Amino acid sequence: MPTATAANAGAAGSSASVMAEQPRVVFTPSGRRGRFAPGTPILDAARSLGVDIDSVCGGRGLCGRCQVDQSTGTFSKHDIDSRPENLSPGNAIEARYAKKKGMQVGRRLSCQALLQGDVVIDVPPESQVHKQVVRKRAEARDFEIDPAIRLHYLEVREPDMASPSGDLERVLEALKEQWGIEDLECDLRVLQGLQKALRQGDWKITVAVHRGQVLTTAWPGFHDRAYGVAVDVGSTTIAVHLCNLSSGEILASAGRMNPQIRFGEDLMSRVSYVMMHPGGDEEMTVAVRGAIDALFAEVAGEAGIDPDDILNAVFVGNPVMHHLLLGIDPTELGGAPFALAANSAMTLWATELGLSKINRNARAYVLPCIAGHVGADTAGVILSENPHLSSEIMLVVDVGTNAEIVLGNKDRLLACSSPTGPAFEGAQITSGQRAAPGAIERVRIDPATLEPRFKVIGSDLWSDDPNFASETQKTGVTGICGSGIVEALAEMYLAGILKADGSVDGAMATRSPRVREDGRTFAYHLHDGPPEIFITQTDVRAIQLAKAALYAGARLLMDRLGIETLDRIVLAGAFGSHIDVKHAMVLGMIPDCDLQKVSSAGNAAGSGALIALLNQKARDDIEAVVRRVEKIETAVEPRFQEHFVGAMGIPHKSAPFPHLSAAVALPPRGGVASGESGRRRRRNRV
Amino acid sequence: MPTATAANAGAAGSSASVMAEQPRVVFTPSGRRGRFAPGTPILDAARSLGVDIDSVCGGRGLCGRCQVDQSTGTFSKHDIDSRPENLSPGNAIEARYAKKKGMQVGRRLSCQALLQGDVVIDVPPESQVHKQVVRKRAEARDFEIDPAIRLHYLEVREPDMASPSGDLERVLEALKEQWGIEDLECDLRVLQGLQKALRQGDWKITVAVHRGQVLTTAWPGFHDRAYGVAVDVGSTTIAVHLCNLSSGEILASAGRMNPQIRFGEDLMSRVSYVMMHPGGDEEMTVAVRGAIDALFAEVAGEAGIDPDDILNAVFVGNPVMHHLLLGIDPTELGGAPFALAANSAMTLWATELGLSKINRNARAYVLPCIAGHVGADTAGVILSENPHLSSEIMLVVDVGTNAEIVLGNKDRLLACSSPTGPAFEGAQITSGQRAAPGAIERVRIDPATLEPRFKVIGSDLWSDDPNFASETQKTGVTGICGSGIVEALAEMYLAGILKADGSVDGAMATRSPRVREDGRTFAYHLHDGPPEIFITQTDVRAIQLAKAALYAGARLLMDRLGIETLDRIVLAGAFGSHIDVKHAMVLGMIPDCDLQKVSSAGNAAGSGALIALLNQKARDDIEAVVRRVEKIETAVEPRFQEHFVGAMGIPHKSAPFPHLSAAVALPPRGGVASGESGRRRRRNRV
Questions:
Q1: Which among B158, B161, B349 is the top mutation candidate for probing chain A, defined by the most A β-carbons within 10 Å of its own β-carbon?
Q2: Count of beta carbons in the 10 Å neighbourhood of residue A12
Q3: Is the N or C terminus of chain B more exposed, i.e. has fewer CB atoms within 10 Å?
Q4: CA gap A415, A407 in Å, rounded
Q5: This prediction's pTM
Q6: Which domains are present in chain B?
Q7: Which helix (H) or strand (E) covers residue A329, if one does?
Q8: Residues B592-613 pLDDT 10s
């Protein structure tokens, strides 16, 4: 190969005059520049200048990853006249590649294009090794693609009787010489097929290397398909994303119900199942692994790829899901002291998890757990939302049967779990249901008439829209989900139907038939049916318990951190994505915060899994962060009980909610308003 | 625990006077000494002085590994009066241990015996961690017991909600605090049972740690049974030794035919089988693994141990056996360039080799191969015979279907394989057979009468003994094995029946009916039968080819090393153990050497496996040695052909054999003797 001499490498003395005559190359957008001997491939020039250009084939014109554009014209800024003829014309290798795989007009393979004069070369984002993944949500941090699995095309020295050596050893030698990777281990299962691959590929193979440490796969010839799966093992739903490990592109996504549901709806009932049925943990392990395997087959089929090209899998899940996935009896998580079998992250073969719709040497990475109630899913949430990198104090809440709460900033991070119970998921609510088409998810109550209107999942129309009935004919109105009940309660409060202590104001029954007697208490009639949907006093109490637990957990962490105000709140999880922030705050689910700075992160745990799949350094990062997270066990914190009791009512009555007060017309603060006077005051303000 | 202050640790100033009053302890045989506070356990004193005392339980009086003797009396040499009362009296823990496991009178558990005055303490060899294994053969190097698997008893902190952590992490913490072992990984399969073990053992467990790096097993409470197996996978026989990993004791040994024999007698026919039968390699892999599993069960049964306590397995074997054990198609080894899939040593789970009569987390270690024809068995031979540590030039020969030849000393080591063919194993010989009861293994021919006498395997009597017939009634005389044919030929030569060029001298037929016409050539009638046993001219030619190959290989390496004489020869393998050195040298199988310095090493490959099993450092050593061994491929060395042709005759005719000439009455050197004159001359000297 031609000698590449970087001008900025400070070559001395005698070569200076030679260098002065050598053509210059300027790379954009990096701005790196140097002089190189005529005939130097652009890729070599880029490498010697540290310009980030991808390549799997090592400059052999096979992979097409190293494409660049020549920027032609005179660049006064660089003092360069980048004429088209200053680059060698396209050659047969490029023509072959373009014919086979297609290539944009003007693009060149930088391994084939040779320097003939001064040039300005633009490296498009897709040709960079460390491509940036731009996330849709403005507040989410972008990240670099730096997967744990990398492919390397190799030309391997043939065996030579004069100097005998193993085929593997010559592969490792090629990896060292051609890619600078040393000290690798090799899976036995790779070795079993290595000799055949080498001969089939005429001593050219592509290998997959895991974290620069282990040779995990080998294919004959050139192979450029490397995929990964990010798996969020939820108690209810398992979600899988299939990614291209080099582009970061999500090729397919699929989800299905966690089949463990037949052993118990929620986590505790599954742990109980194990306690009652010896071997029950194995049944559930088999079930969840089978579902994951089916999802792998599904996403591979959808994307039209061979599951054998799936080389890496990353898993998140709460501690019970984490243990059952790993084949660990979760019994200890069912009672104090809630001891995890292990909290460290784990790297192992996917086959150790009994998975088969994936390359048999694929590596699985399971994110670390934080504590007995704060699992790898929360680690994923942290990785997605980055409170540990934030200057602002962030509260990150993932609401499910338990609420996992993380509070802090780059200096200090605290985490706890708060037992919200399943009310937010629609369970234990009279007309409650899971978030599914037909479930009421938005509610508004007219403070004057006390008449409701609502939206159901699956339709964008409000229920008072003339077309509502016809548009929801298919789904019907089936019940109310978590976000619906939160809105309903907040609206009931704002309309004066709900008192600050959480009791449904029976006096309102005189104003509207919507408020009705229901045994010794009163209920609000949200929908005429069928089915009729009521919000009962019992429902209100269930939500009060749930939201008090959530609020108390957050307050407990704030106490520990010694703060009274939050800079930012992120609501993660499906429920967190659907609730209206303002209503949640009215109800006192979350502490006061500038409403502009409260956002929903969607499935942040899943996003964290995806980040860990696409960026290996993120794994080290989250492991380090999790080690320094201060774990708070709410069950042993007396202050938690105090906060819990104090948070049962509508909290802006007892705690200042300045941001909320500025944004929403709240009943005035002060002693608990009696229904009547509260209503009057409120009505005066409307 | 009391503070232990070693006098030689150089404690300064103010504590000097205190120290002067502290009791002294002298350990024998190390001679290490120090002063310690009264009440210091002897084990603690030993540790702070670096005295080598074993312990699995960490000083809790459970394992009994730390036993010592107090030497009482006045020791003027040490200026110490070691009175019995200077050690605390035996306590309840010692009494319990003695009752449960037995203890020699006078012995103390050094973890329980407390210093009360000046004492001399003797550490018996069996209480040392690094016990020496004394090998029977005088020339074999002893080695230390330092197994890859160590047991550690732990008291683990219970989970604490105030500071949540995983059970595994607290186990690792205990390993660090109680044993100074850090940065461990843990097998998932250990983790799956860890919580149960911890609770069953009331937070006391014993763990097995592999090479100080991986936690591979956990048992509730105290567990002191750790075994290992050394496996020699021969083409014909598989041999297994079961060892106690802490004492080095061999508890049981077993061997059985390699069931692959049904696919082909020798290596080449097995490789051919694979070439002819796709999937044949898998059949043979399954067969050999099944046999190994059966042997594991057999040795465990014989020793009365639980196979689950077998925690480590070490394997040696020639390249084809090595590949088939690992599940690698050996086809490439069947033809030039004889490329190994890999030559490096391998550490993996025994389960990856499909083995099940062993702990499911047991680690397997496979010694490195050297070249396409020089396998892990030769690495084992080197480890056993240590040519790489020798100042003398050593020739180590392992004779089988191929002869693996190693030559050199601590400065330089060469290895090659020479294609001797199966003649030395009795194959392709008219009356040949494997070494088994009934096979002729020793032969003497009276030079005067040309009458033979012989011994068969299974009897110590010569055939001319009156009791021979009755004693060999059971086995009979069935044929002649490799060592028998070598002796027969050497004796035929010494008796003048065989000429120096290898032809049977027909002229001798006139002297004795033992020499008979056999077609166009002559044969020697060794046994009247049944069955009649002849040594034919074809047999002589087969042995000539074999011994010429062996000799040529050795000479080739000597040329490479630039030497003409050898300091020492070691004959390894079953054949090497049975042949008479003198006869081998007469025949010219091996170069000339002082007969006193030619020895048989028996199954040195198996011994090497045993050493690697019991001493982890030996693994690193042999890997480093193998890397620097100069591999010579005889097939591409023109000099090999020259030596081979030159070695077909009886070599002391063409090459000087000064040592042999001094020891044996050889026919005089010079031109090839004609039968008649050669015989006469020889007879004159007898």
A1: B161
A2: 7
A3: N
A4: 6
A5: 0.88
A6: 22-127 (3.10.20.30), 148-220 (3.10.20.880), 227-378 (3.30.420.480), 431-535 (no CATH)
A7: none
A8: 999 999 998 989 999 999 999 9
